[in-house]
Backbone:
Protein backbone atom coordinates (compact mmCIF):
# COMPACT_ATOMS: atom_id res chain seq x y z
CA UNK A 1 0.00 0.00 0.00
CA UNK A 2 1.20 3.48 -0.80
CA UNK A 3 0.18 6.87 0.47
CA UNK A 4 -1.40 9.55 -1.73
CA UNK A 5 1.47 11.96 -1.17
CA UNK A 6 3.99 9.33 -2.29
CA UNK A 7 1.99 8.53 -5.42
CA UNK A 8 1.69 12.19 -6.43
CA UNK A 9 5.36 12.93 -5.72
CA UNK A 10 6.46 9.88 -7.72
CA UNK A 11 4.53 10.96 -10.78
CA UNK A 12 5.75 14.52 -10.31
CA UNK A 13 9.38 13.31 -10.33
CA UNK A 14 8.82 11.06 -13.34
CA UNK A 15 8.16 13.84 -15.78
CA UNK A 16 5.44 15.96 -14.35
CA UNK A 17 7.72 18.50 -12.71
CA UNK A 18 6.59 21.19 -15.15
CA UNK A 19 2.90 20.32 -14.64
CA UNK A 20 0.88 21.97 -11.90
CA UNK A 21 0.11 19.77 -8.92
CA UNK A 22 -3.62 20.04 -9.58
CA UNK A 23 -3.14 18.62 -13.09
CA UNK A 24 -1.14 15.64 -11.80
CA UNK A 25 -3.78 14.87 -9.18
CA UNK A 26 -6.55 15.17 -11.80
CA UNK A 27 -4.72 12.81 -14.17
CA UNK A 28 -4.19 10.25 -11.42
CA UNK A 29 -7.83 10.48 -10.38
CA UNK A 30 -9.03 10.07 -13.98
CA UNK A 31 -6.68 7.10 -14.38
CA UNK A 32 -8.02 5.07 -11.47
CA UNK A 33 -10.40 7.02 -9.29
CA UNK A 34 -9.94 7.71 -5.60
CA UNK A 35 -8.32 4.32 -4.94
CA UNK A 36 -5.57 5.15 -7.45
CA UNK A 37 -3.89 7.18 -4.72
CA UNK A 38 -3.73 4.16 -2.42
CA UNK A 39 -3.29 1.15 -4.69
CA UNK A 40 0.07 0.29 -6.14
CA UNK A 41 -1.40 -1.09 -9.37
CA UNK A 42 0.53 0.99 -11.92
CA UNK A 43 3.22 2.25 -9.60
CA UNK A 44 5.63 -0.59 -10.37
CA UNK A 45 5.77 0.68 -13.94
CA UNK A 46 6.26 4.19 -12.63
CA UNK A 47 9.48 3.48 -10.76
CA UNK A 48 8.10 2.73 -7.31
CA UNK A 49 9.46 -0.81 -7.22
CA UNK A 50 13.09 0.16 -6.46
CA UNK A 51 11.95 2.69 -3.86
CA UNK A 52 9.66 0.14 -2.23
CA UNK A 53 12.49 -2.41 -2.06
CA UNK A 54 14.82 0.25 -0.64
CA UNK A 55 12.29 1.23 2.02
CA UNK A 56 11.65 -2.36 3.10
CA UNK A 57 15.37 -3.17 3.28
CA UNK A 58 16.15 0.01 5.21
CA UNK A 59 13.38 -0.73 7.70
CA UNK A 60 14.58 -4.31 8.15
CA UNK A 61 18.17 -3.17 8.67
CA UNK A 62 17.16 -0.58 11.24
CA UNK A 63 15.06 -3.15 13.13
CA UNK A 64 17.91 -5.71 13.20
CA UNK A 65 20.44 -3.08 14.31
CA UNK A 66 18.10 -1.86 17.02
CA UNK A 67 17.57 -5.37 18.37
CA UNK A 68 21.27 -6.22 18.33
CA UNK A 69 22.44 -2.94 19.84
CA UNK A 70 19.78 -3.00 22.55
CA UNK A 71 20.97 -6.49 23.62
CA UNK A 72 24.59 -5.32 23.68
CA UNK A 73 23.78 -2.20 25.69
CA UNK A 74 21.59 -4.08 28.16
CA UNK A 75 24.39 -6.60 28.68
CA UNK A 76 26.87 -3.78 29.28
CA UNK A 77 24.55 -2.07 31.75
CA UNK A 78 24.07 -5.31 33.68
CA UNK A 79 27.80 -5.93 33.68
CA UNK A 80 28.57 -2.45 34.98
CA UNK A 81 25.77 -2.55 37.52
CA UNK A 82 26.21 -6.05 38.90
CA UNK A 83 29.82 -6.83 38.07
CA UNK A 84 30.72 -9.95 36.15
CA UNK A 85 27.63 -11.76 37.34
CA UNK A 86 29.72 -14.40 39.13
CA UNK A 87 28.85 -14.76 42.77
CA UNK A 88 31.93 -15.41 44.91
CA UNK A 89 31.28 -17.43 48.01
CA UNK A 90 33.06 -16.25 51.13
CA UNK A 91 35.07 -19.06 52.64
CA UNK A 92 34.87 -19.25 56.39
CA UNK A 93 38.29 -18.93 58.03
Residues:
Amino acid sequence: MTYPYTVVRTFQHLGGADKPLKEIITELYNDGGFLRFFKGNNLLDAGMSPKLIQTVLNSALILVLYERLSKIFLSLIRLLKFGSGVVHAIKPS
In short: The chain has a mean pLDDT of 77. The chain has two domains: 1-46, 49-82. The chain has three helices and no strands.
